[in-house]
């Protein structure tokens, strides 16, 4: 795959964008698809379909690293991952099949996709800003979890959540992070937050990978752009992760939410 890439194709601005977004992802734990797609569309003029497809493969790489870390810490509930994948993978495949029938969309379709992107960003911003309050509301009256406790049974709603995320992520590359975590916190209030986050990251790996390769088959992935973003993002994720424990959450969340709201507004009105 890298045979068609050489050093002359390295773009400093794209590498810096990958570095910045990777740093923010490592620092806050959310915002990969929510930030990269609007950055590509608004700042670099990349078409929405190419931005979504490229960002999905970009996200799958970072999610693999995060999933591996959570797996070694035993903070992944694989029953939740399986249930979500039962809904998301088929939904992503069906969505890709429908999208492939239209080929490269006309300008009107691009505008529709930008509106969908903007709406998803607004929802993600709300979920990011009020995630802790929603979790506290869901946990009200629920006994504290014990170590090693498995997730209570909520298979139908978890599969449905997976299907919704499968469609949303495949179309917009947004939703697998803050929205997925917030919904899981509501569905499994007795489960530890770290286990919820780990399960959501692990589920995002097959979803973003399948959706990303589907967009690649359709022709909506720029390999050169993807490599440039990864060159910057991989060290950015590492540095952001190392600094995450020293950064106050009450500052990071409002800042991230404000960026997402502004990006969503610009996409909807642009």
DSSP summary, beta strand count: 0
Indicate the structural class.
Answer: mainly alpha
Number of distinct helices: 11
Give the C-alpha Rg: 18 Å
Multimeric state: single chain
The end-to-end distance, rounded to whole angstroms, is 34 Å
| Shape descriptor | globular
Summarize the structure.
This protein has 270 residues and is mainly alpha-helical. It is 76% helix and 0% strand.
Verbal overview:
The protein is built from 11 helices and no strands. It has helices at residues 12-28, 32-43, 48-72, 78-100, 107-129, 131-139, 155-172, 178-187, 193-218, 223-243, 249-269. Residues 146-150 have low confidence and may be disordered. With 270 residues, it is an all-alpha fold. Helix 3 (48-72) crosses helix 10, helix 5 runs antiparallel to helix 11 (249-269) and helix 6 packs parallel to helix 8. The radius of gyration is 18 Å and the shape is globular.
Write the topology of this structure.
Elements: H1 12-28, H2 32-43, H3 48-72, H4 78-100, H5 107-129, H6 131-139, H7 155-172, H8 178-187, H9 193-218, H10 223-243, H11 249-269
């Amino acid at each position: 795959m890298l045979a068609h890439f050489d050093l002359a194709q390295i773009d400093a601005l794209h590498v810096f964008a990958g570095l910045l977004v990777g740093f923010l992802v490592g620092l806050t734990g959310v915002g990969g698809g929510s930030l990269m797609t609007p950055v590509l569309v608004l700042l670099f003029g990349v078409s929405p379909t190419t931005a979504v497809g490229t960002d999905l493969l970009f996200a799958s790489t970072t999610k693999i690293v995060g999933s591996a870390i959570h797996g070694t810490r035993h903070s992944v509930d694989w029953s939740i991952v399986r249930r979500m994948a039962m809904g998301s993978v088929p939904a992503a495949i069906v969505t890709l099949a429908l999208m492939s029938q239209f080929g490269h969309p006309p300008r009107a379709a691009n505008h529709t996709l930008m509106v969908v992107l903007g709406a998803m960003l607004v929802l993600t911003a709300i979920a990011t800003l009020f995630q802790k309050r929603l979790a506290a509301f869901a946990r009200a009256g629920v006994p504290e979890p014990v170590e090693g406790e498995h997730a209570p049974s909520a298979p139908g709603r978890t599969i449905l959540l997976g299907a919704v995320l499968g469609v949303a992520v495949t179309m917009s590359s947004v939703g697998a992070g803050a929205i997925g975590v917030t919904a899981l916190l509501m569905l499994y209030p007795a489960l530890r937050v770290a286990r919820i986050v780990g399960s959501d990251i692990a589920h995002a790996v097959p979803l973003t990978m399948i959706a990303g390769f589907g967009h690649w088959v359709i022709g909506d992935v720029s390999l050169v752009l993807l490599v440039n973003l990864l060159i910057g993002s991989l060290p950015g994720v590492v540095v952001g992760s190392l600094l995450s424990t020293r950064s106050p959450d009450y500052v990071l969340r409002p800042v991230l939410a404000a960026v997402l709201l502004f990006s969503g507004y610009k996409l909807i009105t642009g």
